[in-house]
Specification:
The complex is a heterodimer of chains A (about 290) and B (about 270). In chain A, helix 2 crosses helix 9 (about 225-235), helix 5 (about 145-165) packs across helix 6 (about 165-175) and helix 9 packs across helix 10 (about 240-260). Chain A has helices at about 5-35, 45-60, 65-90, 95-120, 145-165, 165-175, 180-185, 190-215, 225-235, 240-260, 265-280, and strands spanning about 135, 140. By secondary structure, chain A is an all-alpha fold. In chain A, a hairpin with a 2-residue loop joins strand 1 and strand 2 (about 140). In chain A, strands 1-2 form a two-stranded antiparallel sheet. Chain B has a single domain (about 5-235), classed as 3-Layer(aba) Sandwich (Rossmann fold). In chain B, about 35% of the residues lie in helices and about 25% in strands. In chain B, strands 6-7-8-3-9-10 form a 6-stranded mixed β-sheet, with helices on both faces. Classes of the chains: A mainly alpha (about 290), B alpha/beta (about 270). At the A-B interface, helix 6 and helix 7 of A face helix 2, strand 6 and helix 3 of B.
Chain lengths: ~290, ~270
Amino acid sequence: METDWLLLFEVSLAGLGTGGLYALTALAFVVIYKATRVVNLAIGEILMLGAYAFFGLAAGWALPWWAAALGALAVAGLFGAVVERTVIRPMLGESPISVFMVTVGLGSVLIGIVEIVWTADPHRLPEFMPNAPVFIGEAFLAPKIAYSFLVAAVVIAVFVLLFRFWRGGVALRATANDQAAAYSMGINVPGVFSLAWVVACMVAAGAGILVGAIGGISSTMGVFGLSVLVVVIVGGLDSVPGALVGGLLIGLVEALAGIYLGGEYKLLATFTLLIAVLMVRPYGLFGTHEIERL
Amino acid sequence: MAAEPILEVNNVEVIYKKTIQVLRGLSLAVPRGEIVALLGSNGAGKSTTLKAISNLLALENGAVSAGHIRFAGTETAAKRPHELVRAGLFHVMEGRRIFDELTVEENLTAATYARDGKSGSAAARFELVYEYFPNLHTRRGVRAGYLSGGEQQMLAIGRALVAEPQLILLDEPSLGLSPKLVEEIFAIIARINAEQRVSMLLVEQNAAVAFAVASYGYIMETGRIVIDGPVERLTRDQDVREFYLGLGGHEGGAKSYRDIKHYKRRKRWLS
């Protein structure tokens, strides 16, 4: 059989598109891990919270989509601040497993809240992205995926620039590097923790709106976080470039496996990749060596 | 005493993990504009003293259980570490503790947080750092982890300069450096003290270099001060000469190890 190059190209594009969303969510995970060394397993549920907040504001309150998006980001940011202050900060210094379990519980609580407020039925988000098909050369790309990828790419680029050039980015990296030394520089370390949670939750919520726009929302959409976990483990828990490369890689592998092996092999393919990477580089592709808490 | 000292430590006790007492009624003072040396052997509690002053003890499960620490006339107990730094008390920690994943310049940028609430531009302070340490200027874009030990110490002191503090706590700046580098670093420390009028509390194991720059010295053992006095007097003290400066007590010259009988003569301040 002749290889269908166009199909391969289209599938790869779609995979990279989804990968962009993985990368964006992974970025949220990495920001929290870098700053506070908390493995946040609730990232998928925070993403879901963002999507539902958007749904509630756009469909329930009938706000225009941009206002609903801003509102959803604000809700998620506030959520991040409250959770960091009331749940995470008192746990600092406790065993990493305890904090890890707290985030697992947090995820369950979020699912519960969403099911109480919006029931467990799936919903569709109001349409807000242009519907005209996008062509790259001959290849067709679903418009939602294309635009989501663009948004994710822009947000990620902004983040990379902020990390590098903004003073707050330096403070975050300094805190990640050596907490006590960061204190001794006059950096408000608890403030950095707060900021990391707020920003990460907003990023995750933004990713949630995009994911929801593509595939609809339901109280089980938090499983998206499972793929993100694979992404950050492959990329390295504390590495921003790792999150980006890992995200695109996992997105690509999932899409190709889905088409050429069948949908049921998607997870098999990604987890095989995970095991392969961990065997060669136990700390992830770009992770710092001594990280082995999980 | 003429003016109020910039730092006063009174009868401070420190306990780690609620069980291990490290400081036992320690008192010292740093007069404005001067360098005070705090000497002692390993485990005497020198670094703990500095961490108690800068309020970094809590990060290591330690706490001040008694006594008072006053910086520039106000109690430090209620202040959080970064607030103290911004008030002008800068702690250069043991082992330099530079951010090895950040570049040299980013390390200095991190220290600009200590300037929050101060007027004047940080850029001018960067220039000043590069003036004292031209090496750092040529390597400003390099990841700090790749610097040599001496350059890292320079960077650690440079960060303190950026902060423009009133008091610098310097924890063993000579650690792991060659004698020549130690001399260089201490010459700059003396210059900074004279030119920037920064007071310093200097913790050292190397008593000779510390006494070369300090005006007053404290010697501590097992969590308390055992001798203190102006440096001129300490350098004449028989026991200090012998135990800390490595000079023969009686004839003044260097002593052969063969003649030393530690176990026969106990330090007189060990009760």
